[in-house]
Each structure stands twice: as structure tokens, then as C-alpha cells.
Amino acid sequence: xxxxxxxxxxxxxxxxxxxxxxxxxxxxxxxxxxxxxxxxxxxxxxxxxxxxxxxxxxxxxxxxxxxxxxxxxxxxxxxxxxxxxxxxxxxxxxxxxxxxxxxxxxxxxxxxxxxxxxxxxxxxxxxxxxxxxxxxxxxxxxxxxxxxxxxxxxxxxxxxxxxxxxxxxxxxxxxxxxxxxxxxxxxxxxxxxxxxxxxxxxxxxxxxxxxxxxxxxxxxxxxxxxxxxxxxxxxxxxxxxxxxxxxxxxxxxxxxxxxxxxxxxxxxxxxxxxxxxxxxxxxxxxxxxxxxxxxxxxxxxxxxxxxxxxxxxxxxxxxxxxxxxxxxxxxxxxxxxx
Length: 338
Fold this sequence. Notes:
Blueprint: H1 9-16, H2 20-27, H3 35-48, H4 54-60, E1 66-71, H5 77-92, E2 96-101, H6 106-113, E3 123-126, H7 133-137, E4 145-148, E5 158-161, H8 164-177, E6 183-188, H9 195-210, E7 220-222, H10 228-241, E8 247-250, H11 253-265, E9 275-280, E10 293-297, H12 299-314, E11 323-325, E12 328-331
Parallel strand pairs: 1-2, 1-3, 3-4, 4-5, 5-11, 6-7, 6-8, 8-9, 9-10
Antiparallel strand pairs: 10-12
Helix pairs in contact: 1-2, 1-3, 5-12, 8-9, 10-11
């Protein structure tokens, strides 16, 4: 048995008393191998701990085994956890991710979509924030691609989207069912609303309408971005203007964390005085004080769906763009009395 180095095809062939070609045929699942021979070779493969060279196999098939991933950032909890799920999903398929941080910049997102800076990759997974749909429609790169997120509706490209209308509806309905009637939306924008923002606002308004609660534009609180400091400052501004608020639907968990901190500083008790719900169910939501109620987006499922779509394209599928929807569900914790 070889020691101090990786086991090779030759080592397995010598131990099994067969040719290297026979071992290669077994490793590559060639059909013209007798069942008893296949079983014998596999037994020696397991015994010697032989691991095929995935990169070499990919190159022989005309592939690099590399997938480009364009993601807004890695410091945000949601995108960091999504990237981790994508890395694991890729690894299970013998693929390696090359990560490019776009910072949500439309020009950087366009460059990634067009394959700028990414050579020798088999496919692309892009998590866009601000790229216009018309740019995706005129994408020059022919590398198979999958989008993750709300962008790209109506574009002929594979997508794993989130039904953020349903997400916003679920969060707002939960607050309504807890007795809230002056529910603020934290995370609006003064400029053009992105698809994710527009959808979560639409869900918020739909839930209010269904409950026959009047929509009040004064309860829409703008923030420059969706990070903790913006949630904190936005909540302070909101409560100074509308101290009667009894519920806060934060567009994501990071805004909600900032809001919880602001409410604590103002002496407003959560959930006794104000209820707070976020979106994403990042890990911190289970450990903050109080723990945060949130609408969880299933990132593991989204990653698996993205690579399932991409794998079919890499195997030669030619078809119109397909859309899958990532699962979501409400998680009730202390911030809404759970």
C-alpha cells in the first residue's frame, strides 16, 4: 500500500491485478466493464483510499470545474451565509467557486454578467442588486448563468427567486395578528426602488389592505442602505416623528437589529411596547436580545436549486429560462412575543 503520497490509478491497478485502463473505466463509469470486475476494482479503490483527480477529469471533458460567483458583499450576514451555502453545494458536485464581490454596483454587476475578469469558468451564479433588466437582456457572455434573487423577472435566464411579496405579507400579517395597527415599514428608499424593496412593500400593503387597516405613507421610513446603523438611525427618526408606532416590519434582519438597539435606548420595550419583525433569519437573529422574529429565506435550498439548474445547462440543456422559488417561512421569537 502506498504511503506518504496520494494513491494513483497505477496503485489500484497493481493491487487489483488489472490494467490501468480497466481502473479508469470503472472510475469513469464506462458501461463495458463486467459487474464482477467493477465490484473487485471498487473494493480496492475503497481499500486504498483512491480519490479521482476531479480537475483532471473536468479538463478531459473540456471543462475547468470552476464556477464564477458574483455577490454584493461577504460582510453582510445574509450574503455571507448564502455564499457559504453555495460553496457547499458546489463542493458536493466537485466544483470550485471563484467569488467576485460586486458591492451592489450596477457596473460591476454588468461586468460579472458579461464575463469580464472571469476566464476558464464553466458557469456563473450572480446575486444582483441593482443591475437593470435590460442589461441582462443584452448580456454578451454565453456562459451558462443562474440569477439568485428578485432581479431579472421576464429575462430569458435561469433564476432562483424569492417571493418577496409573500414575504412582506407574512411579516406584516404576523404583526397584525399580534394586535398591531400602526405598523411602520423600515427600509424604504428615496430613489428608485429595487425589485426586492418594491415586492416587500407590495406585500406590506397587501396585508394591511386585507386587514382593512389604512395605509399611511408617514409610516414608511427611508434608510440609505439596509445595514445595522441605518436601522438604528431610521428607527430613531421614525419614533421621533411617530411615537405611536406599535409594530416595525424591517426589510431585513440587519435593519431590525439596529431598530432593536434604538428602541432599547429610547426605553421602549420589545415586545410590550413595540413589536419588531425582520427578514432573512441570519444566525444573529437567534442570539440577539430579545431574539428576533423573522421570515426565514432557505439559503441552502436556494443554493441547491441554483446548481441543479446550472448542472442541466452544463449537460447541454437548451430551453427557455426557468424560474424556481426559494422557500420561506415565519420564525416567531421574542421580539413579537414568541
